[in-house]
Design a protein that fits this description.
By secondary structure, the chain is mainly α. 47% of the residues lie in helices and 10% in strands. The chain has 14 helices and 8 strands. The strands form 4 sheets. A two-stranded antiparallel ribbon has the order 1-2. A hairpin with a 4-residue loop joins strand 7 and strand 8. Helix 10 packs across helix 13. The chain is elongated and about 85 Å long. It starts with a helix and ends with a helix.
């Protein structure tokens, strides 16, 4: 065979190899592409995040097949090959995956154990049931959360003299892994409560004294709107407690209606509402109600720990937009303040 023929055969072989390499690179690129490209989804879902669970003990083949069936990747076979070639260990857990990510990115997420974490922001003043509802997106059922908050072992551990941890579920921002147990979520919130509360001036320590303060704080939380007035409102309630006068808090009536009776939050309380016979009705009975009516934040807790020392026994809202109140000593002054506020509003606020 002459040199020209040998050279020609070499060029043909090189061309075949190059074409094969290009085809392999092209195939790799196509199979590695996200299921969703340029906003045009190739799946039934959207380009948003999808929760995907890798069960403990699942094989790489099973996991990659599930990823394809869930329409998160284009090819389970390719993903299986990729995982084996790069020696990836796919870890059990629940992940937030996106069809906008490449197969390689998805497999790396699972191999690094980067499980789904949810940011749960709990505002001040929520009840136990409403707090429980916020954790559903992290896979915690509300009924399980409430059950954990009523666990006697947990309550005893934290020396909470009550039938539930309502009042001790500290309002804050929490980062919760998907599938976290309800017991762990409640424990996290209660632990945060004691950590924060213990740093406040006048913290009474754990037990009955603290529980009374938490009940008071839970009412203050639902009554105050301006931070500076919280100690004044707490002071009014303390003055009433000293003379065995009813706290007469509308917030406790709202708690009865929404949490105990299971009705919608009323736009306005009626005489019938205020007359409802229930241990939480602070219009009918003097003293603190049986338990907290909300989960108070730092402002309300500090106000309850260190209430303002005043002669006030009454307060009423005088400006709905600013949330400020008028504080008075006597019932006559309280009634007069109401008349003045009404006349001011009737005159257009001038």
């Amino acid at each position: 065979m002459n040199v020209k023929k040998i050279f020609a055969l070499f060029l043909i072989a090189a061309g075949v190899l190059l074409a094969g390499s290009c085809a392999a690179v092209l195939a790799f690129s196509n199979l590695n592409k996200p299921v969703t490209e340029n906003g045009n989804s190739l799946s039934a879902g959207s380009s948003g995040g999808v929760l995907f669970t890798v069960e403990s003990g699942s094989s790489v083949k099973e996991i990659t097949a599930d990823l394809e069936n869930t329409r998160l990747i284009r090819s389970g076979l390719f993903a299986h090959f990729y995982s084996r070639f790069f020696n990836l260990s796919l870890k059990a857990g629940t992940y937030m995956l996106s069809p906008s990510a490449s197969t390689a990115e998805i497999l790396r997420t699972i191999s690094e154990g980067d499980i789904a974490v949810f940011k749960i922001t709990v505002p001040e003043g929520l009840t136990l049931s409403k707090t429980a509802g916020l954790f559903s997106e992290a896979g915690i059922r509300a009924e399980d959360f409430i059950r954990a908050a009523k666990d006697r072992t947990l309550l005893s551990e934290f020396n909470i003299p009550a039938s539930s941890a309502e009042g001790y579920l500290f309002p804050d921002t929490y980062f919760v892994s998907y599938g976290t147990s309800s017991e762990r979520a409640v424990r996290m919130m209660v632990s945060t409560f004691f950590e924060k509360a213990a740093a406040l001036e006048g913290f009474p320590g754990r037990g009955e004294d603290l529980h009374d303060k938490v009940i008071l704080a839970s009412i203050v939380e639902r009554e105050y709107r301006v931070k500076e007035e919280a100690p004044l409102i707490a002071g009014v309630f303390v003055n009433r407690l000293k003379i065995n006068m009813g706290l007469q808090s509308c917030a406790t009536i709202e708690y009865i209606i929404t949490e105990i009776m299971g009705r919608e939050h009323p736009e306005r309380l009626t005489a019938q509402d205020i007359a409802v016979e229930n241990d939480y009705n602070t219009y009918l009975w003097a003293g603190l109600p049986p338990g907290p009516i909300s989960n108070p934040g730092l402002t309300a807790l500090q106000a309850a720990f260190s209430p303002a020392k005043t002669k006030y026994f009454y307060f009423r809202l005088n400006d709905n937009s600013s949330g400020t109140h008028t504080f008075t000593v006597s019932l006559d002054d309280h009634i007069e303040a109401g008349r003045e506020i009404y006349l001011k509003q009737a005159a257009g606020g001038k």
